[in-house]
Amino acid sequence: FRNLETLTLGRGQLGDPFFHALAECNLLRSLNVNDATLGNGMQEIPINHDRLQHLQLIKCRVLRISIRCPELQTLSLKRSNMGQAVLSCPLLHALDIGSCHKLSDAAIRSAAISCPQLESLDMSNCSCVSDETLREIAQTCSNLHILDASYCPNVSLESVRLPLLTELRLHSCEGITSASMAAISYSYMLEVLELNNCNLLTTVSLDLPRLQRISLVHCRKFVDLNLRSVTLSSIMVSNCPSLHRISITSNSLKKLALLRQENLTTLALQCQCLQEVDLTDCESLTNSICEVFSDGGGCPMLRSLILDNCESLTTVRFCSTSLLSLSLVGCRAITSLDLICPCLEKVCLDGCDHLERASFCPVALRSLNLGICPKLSTLRIEAPSMVSLELKGCGVLCEASINCPLLTSLDASFCSQLKDDCLSATAASCPLIDSLILMSCPSVGSDGLYSLRCLPNLTVLDLSYTFLMNLLPVFQSCLQLKVLKLQACKYLTDDSLEPLYKEGALPMLQELDLSYGTLCQSAIEDLLACCTHLTHLSLNGCVNMHDLNWGCSSGQVTELPTVNSPRASFSLEDNYAAIEQPNRLLQNLNCVGCRNIRKALIPPMARCSHLSSFNLSLSTNLKEVDIACLNLGVLNLSNCYALVILKLQCPRLTSLFLQSCNINEEAVEAAIFQCNMLETLDVRFCPKIISISMFRLRGACPSLKRVFSSLLSTS
Predict the structure, then answer these.
(1) Structural contact between residues 699 and 655, judged by C-beta atoms closer than 8 angstroms
(2) Start and end of every F-box/LRR-repeat protein 15/At3g58940/PEG3-like LRR domain (predicted)?
(3) What share of the chain is helix, strand, coil (3-state, %, to 5)?
(4) Nearest to residue 703, comparing CAs of 657, 652, 660?
(5) Sheet containing 245-250: order of strands
(6) Could you give the CA distance from residue 19 to residue 76 in angstroms, rounded to a whole number?
(7) What's the CA gap between 605 and 609, in Å, rounded?
(8) Residues near 188 by Cβ (< 8 Å), separated by ≥ 6?
(9) 3 state DSSP class of 325
(10) Helix 693-700 vs helix 665-672: angle between axes, to the nearest 10 degrees?
């Protein structure tokens, strides 16, 4: 092995002859021995080699060891249990004796000072090391740059001077106190300082021009941190429950996270490059923190600020030209918010449920949701880029100034105090709004609705659950309207919709929702007959709606056969050929919960060739359904308990729902016989359909893929 350069071995016994033989391996540069017994464990082992540069004896068992290697540069005796180590290594620059528990203070001192060129020393977990030993090492090893004295309870650094030190680790050193900072201050070259778990440490005040990284974790009595370093770029402070004050001056720090510092009350920052700050769960921070992060507060480049769950904040005001993102999630005590942040693009206010006054002037937000602030009463917004604003649930909002020239969507649902003057001002300053939701806004009246003429692009308007009695302002002001929702507008009279079906008002209207209204049967029939341009119509819960008899001949509305008519089902061949009138555009018809409907008839002459979905579920008194629609794909008759007669001429029907209907299997079988594209049939809880009927139903309609039954489910 005379040409051997690197040798690694372990887990055995290496006797004295082995180490004598090493001297003959002239090219050996690196020797690594791990978990081995050197000699017989009761003798001194000499290691002599003129060319060896790197030596590791890790977790080895030996009584004494003597090392004479004139070119040795790095030596590790980590976790080995020798009681004495004699070193003659004049060029050694890195020594690791960590966890060598049997080495005495004097032995450590002797070993270290015998290496005057030492630059890195790890003596962690050597519990007997004293300040006296460190003082002698400091005097002898003038080039020492890295020192790890972690878990050395006797080390306090009293009178220890290490001016060239760049890295110092003192984890769990019980002797480290605020007085130790004087010694650390002499290490003006220090770049890395770790003081984790120093339980007696109360104050750290350091002015170190080269310090880049500091760590203070689990320091139970730590109260005050004062750091000045132009190169400081990383600060780790965590789980210091007594920490009250922090002052940091740095030109290199870009990110600061001080999580869960429950008692932190004072924060002073002079950090010219700081961009991100996270103070989550710092629940003792007061309103004065706003000055720190506003212009002139010492953080001119701040872009992101997180103050989640800072529950002592009550009045928040930020004036910043750099801030892009702000999070105040869970700050339940905030009652006033004032943001003068022209570059602010994102703000999170979830949980700010006591907010009463809010001002966003100016901001760069594109969207804002304030529906989570139920106590908001005063609002000011100046946002040149905002396109979406949600105020849903702001029930006490009575004063709002909204200046958003690019706003296209405004949801003010349940803003019961919102009045006409506010709506008029908003319409004037936000002319591009195309979707306006005013559901449950009872204070909005005719004057406010007339102001909507300032919104030439308005296509969606929701006035559900309001006290409107007259829709004339809507018909005259919203000429481009495509969607109009009037759910539960119980004060609308029977002639309120006459302009729609008599005068051609709202020619662009496609979707109309009149659910839970009180319109009479004749008004509904006229609407169905004349508004052929509608694509979606909802009549859910209309108590005045009776039999749905729908037909047309020669362009005039005609009365179709009533409930008592003996008329048979419709003939597709006879009727589709005869129809010359243009087809209706209706695609979706919803009549859910119309308890007074007893019969639903849609013949081919109704010209509903586009109807694809028809929902009559929960119409509990519905007895007969007779539908002939070429493109109907979904028919829902669930919970129509009285249903006994079903006639279908719907060749493209794919889904039929009959859950909880009283219909028998013969009627269902006959109904689906001509539905050649039917894939899904739901007959759960139908008392007259038994499990054996499933095979008959599949036989009647071979295209079925899914049949749902309370007795048998197949797919």
Answers:
(1) no
(2) 455-544
(3) 15, 25, 60
(4) 652
(5) 203-207, 224-228, 245-250, 266-271
(6) 17
(7) 10
(8) 163, 208, 209, 210
(9) strand
(10) 20
Are 320 and 302 in contact, with CB atoms under 8 Å apart? yes
Query: Could you count the other beta carbons within 10 Å of the beta carbon of residue 24?
Result: 10
Distance between CA atoms of residues 17 and 228, nearest Å = 57
Distance, in Å, from the CA atom of 615 to the CA atom of 64, rounded to the nearest integer, reads 92
DSSP 8-state assignment for residue 153: T
Q: Which two tokens stand for residue 191?
A: 């770049």
Specify the amino acid at residue 57: L
Q: What beta strand segments (E) does 17-68 contain?
A: 30-34, 37-38, 44-48, 54-58, 64-68
Residue type, 577: A
How far apart are alpha carbons 491 and 168 in whole angstroms?
79
| Residue where the block lists tokens 């006054």 | 357
628, 650 Cβ separation under 8 angstroms: yes
Which positions of the chain have pLDDT values less than 70? 41, 551-582, 691-693, 711-715
- Cα-based distances in Å from 47 to 50, 68, 103: 10, 6, 18
Nearest C-alpha neighbor of 199 from the set 227, 178, 168: 178
| Cβ atoms of residues 167 and 182 within 8 Å | no
The first and second tokens of residue 702, run together, are: 């071979």
- The answer to whether the beta carbons of residues 468 and 487 sit under 8 Å apart is no
How is residue 501 written in tokens? 């079906």
* Helix, strand, or coil (residue 554): coil
Please report, as a single letter, which amino acid is at residue 442: P
How does pLDDT run across 145-161, given as a tens digit for each residue?
A: 999 999 999 999 989 99
Q: How many C-beta neighbours within 10 Å does residue 297 have?
A: 18
Structure tokens at 45: 């082992």
Distance between CA atoms of 447 and 287, rounded to whole angstroms?
A: 42
| 54-58 and 30-34 beta bridge pairing | parallel
- Distance from the first to the final alpha carbon of the chain: 76
pLDDT number for residue 568: 40
Residue 167 burial (CB count, 10 A) = 18
Give me the sheet containing 44-48, strands edge to edge. 44-48, 64-68, 84-88
Q: Which SS3 state, helix, strand or coil, does residue 18 take?
A: helix
Distance of alpha carbon 452 from alpha carbon 468, whole angstroms = 15
Task: Write out the two tokens for 476.
Answer: 């005259």
Tell me the C-alpha distance between 317 and 319, whole Å: 7
Number of Cβ within a 10 Å radius of residue 258: 22
Smallest CA-to-CA distance from 184 within 200, 202, 207, 201 is with 207
Backbone angles phi, psi at 30, to 5 degrees: -135, 130
- Whole-angstrom distance, CA of residue 662 vs CA of residue 619: 13
In the 8-state DSSP scheme, what is residue 451? G
Per residue, the 3-state secondary structure of 264-297, as one string, reads CCEEEEEECCCCEEECCCCCCCCCCHHHHCCCCC
Rg (CA), the chain: 42
Contact (Cβ atoms closer than 8 angstroms) between residue 364 and residue 340: no
Amino acid identity, position 619: S
- The closest alpha carbon to 35, from 14, 21, 18, belongs to 14
Q: What per-residue confidence (pLDDT) applies to 692?
A: 65
> Taking a C-beta distance cutoff of 8 angstroms, is the pair 99, 119 a contact?
no
* CA pair distance 656, 667, nearest whole angstrom: 14
CA separation for the pair 330, 310 (Å, rounded)? 7
What does the block give as tokens for 692?
């054996």
Judge contact between 74 and 51, C-beta under 8 A. Answer: no
User: Residue 714 contacts by C-beta under 8 Å, 6 or more apart in sequence?
Assistant: 694, 706, 707
Kindly report the CA angle at 224 between 220 and 230, in degrees rounded to 5? 120
The b-or-e profile of 365-386 (16+ CB within 10 A means b, else e) is bebbbbbbbeebbebebbbeeb
Side chain identity at 103, as an amino acid letter?
A: L
Buried b (16+ CB within 10 A) or exposed e, 337-349: bbbbbbebbbbbb
